[in-house]
Write a structure and sequence with these properties.
The structure is a homodimer of 313-residue chains.
Chain A lengths: L1 E6 L3 E6 L2 E5 L5 E5 L24 E2 L4 E2 L4 E5 L14 H15 L4 E7 L1 H12 L4 E7 L7 H19 L3 H16 L2 H7 L5 E3 L2 E3 L3 H14 L2 H13 L11 E6 L7 H10 L4 E6 L7 H4 L1 H19 L1
Parallel strand pairs in A: 4-7, 4-8, 5-6, 8-9, 9-12, 12-13
Antiparallel strand pairs in A: 1-2, 3-7, 10-11
Helix pairs in contact in A: 1-2, 3-4, 3-7, 4-6
Chain lengths: 313, 313
């Protein structure tokens, strides 16, 4: 869908938004949004049976039940690498609002966002609060934490180093490996990679290195460096005034999250402008818990959607 | 001092160990050892009045009082970049034992090590336990934690990327910046770098980036990539059987440490082969607390040295 958007930092631009709809036509709509590497294909469906990024939660009989809901997900602005300007979470929220317009949906049942998707959800609730009954924000706050921003800034420098030296893919793969570390936890690595390092040709190779290298290479094969740089940067540009969010909101916090400290989500809940509930979880998967803790996340989503449906009646 | 050492991984080698002595000749000797970038110049003294890496703890009237103690510190094997082989913490311990031999010191009062220095201290206590009354191990365990090892392995890949692309200094500076993040905490960064990122020429620059870049450049100007690679690797190669340490030991743990989890130091204390005390501290400086929490560290050192002197009588 082509759109004319007034981008917060880059001004008016013609952009293309690619989305996917799942589930029942004319049913209440739920917007789902994940991390910067999650896109429009949230789950397997009739049109595309390949696995999506959130099959555990989206599908027939899942917490976000496609037998009685309609589900919308989009590719983030910038994900195709064609838009090489600063992209704000507000731009993503405005794009989603424009997609609702195009679909003729006045008011969606819920916006369920995790990680960057939670940041965009907060922006959406602040800018287009009349378009949703309820927000579920998992592992995303009103701003990026300065430590996490520093971590991402260094990842972008890996890409910059690779780019300026003609080793783009290697720089991008290395950046992704550092990102993976930030998504996971010492608890998980301590269990999975407990073996001592092995010496190969006089150089130590640590137990986690093969796994991380695989993650990095797979990422670099699928993404452009521009998409990574602009979406990573977008997380750091994100700021929302919590008081501007008056939509009923469920905030899900993971105590082990290395990127989004529990304290930031506590502060968010205390300063939101509408009814807000904090649901803390513990997970050895840290920031990635929304992709891993299927049962616990499903329970929270079911509860939040029931509350949204109660509100919508 | 030239030495013939049997390196654990690289076999017999002629190496040169550079050390510095401070304080009173013939007084009881205390070995001090810091992180991989700390060297023989622990504190300002008569021969070299420039600041050392531990002036806060070593000097006249300090916790490690040079008016009544003799203090030995060395440059780590590998620190000059000339030894390009896997270096074990056991090699460093053996080098220090050889230095004691050369000084004619049968038994030192204490080995006080922090970070990598604590790892070497544990090795020293396991291999040469009859040469010290007491060990103080600050923020270092019997093995590197797998998550921390992964973090360092990726830092070494930054150096490798820079090296193979003719940008050695840039790769080394970037590696050091990631290391700095691991030494510090979100708590500190949250306070120091709370400003939103600024856009410069259409690219966001986060609040911590100037500080980190400065740290990286300063490091790259003073160190070789080989020294960094081999000493970083040495941390990951480190393993000690705690049961082999029978020397009375004080273990200092920082709860906020992102590299050395409190749980690892608890396990260390529970399995040490001799009398052991765990002294947990809280610090917004995380792994770098031994360089920053001067008063709290001084109290612990004073107490440990008094215990060592009691034991030596």
């Amino acid at each position: 869908m082509p759109l004319e958007l007034a981008l917060r930092h880059a001004g008016p631009r013609r952009v293309v938004v690619r989305g996917e709809l799942l589930g029942l036509a004319d049913a209440p709509l739920v917007i789902v949004a994940g991390g910067i590497s999650a896109g429009r294909h949230a789950a397997a469906g009739r049109d595309d049976a390949t696995p999506g990024w959130w099959d555990a939660q989206v599908g027939p009989g899942r917490a976000i039940d496609t037998r009685r809901l309609r589900v919308l997900a989009i590719d983030w602005l910038g994900a195709d690498g064609a838009l090489d300007v600063p992209i704000d979470s507000a731009d993503q929220a405005d794009a989603l609002a424009a997609v609702l317009d195009a679909l003729g949906v006045g008011r969606a049942l819920a916006f369920i966002g995790a990680s960057y998707g939670a940041m965009v959800g907060l922006q959406f609730a602040a800018r287009h609060g009349d378009r949703i009954e309820r927000l579920v924000a998992i592992s995303g706050a009103h701003r990026a934490h300065p430590y996490a921003s520093a971590w991402r800034a260094l990842q972008r420098q890996c890409v910059a180093l690779g780019r300026s030296e003609g080793a783009v893919s290697r720089g991008l793969a290395l950046a992704r490996q550092f990102a993976m570390l930030s998504y996971r936890t010492p608890e998980e690595f301590g269990e999975r990679f407990d073996a001592p390092p092995a010496l190969h040709d006089g150089v130590a190779r640590c137990a986690a290195e093969d796994y991380l290298a695989h993650c990095g290479q797979r990422y670099a094969a699928r993404w452009t460096s521009t998409a990574f740089l602009r979406l990573s940067e977008s997380i750091d540009l994100h700021r929302v005034d919590p008081a501007a969010v008056r939509v009923p909101t469920t905030v899900v916090a993971i105590e082990e999250d290395r990127l989004v400290p529990l304290a930031d989500l506590q502060q968010l809940v205390e300063t939101l402008g509408g009814p807000a509930t904090l649901r803390p979880l513990r997970s050895r998967y840290g920031h990635d818990a929304f992709l891993k803790e299927d049962a616990a996340i499903a329970r929270l989503l079911t509860e939040a959607l029931a509350a949204a449906e109660g509100g919508a009646k």
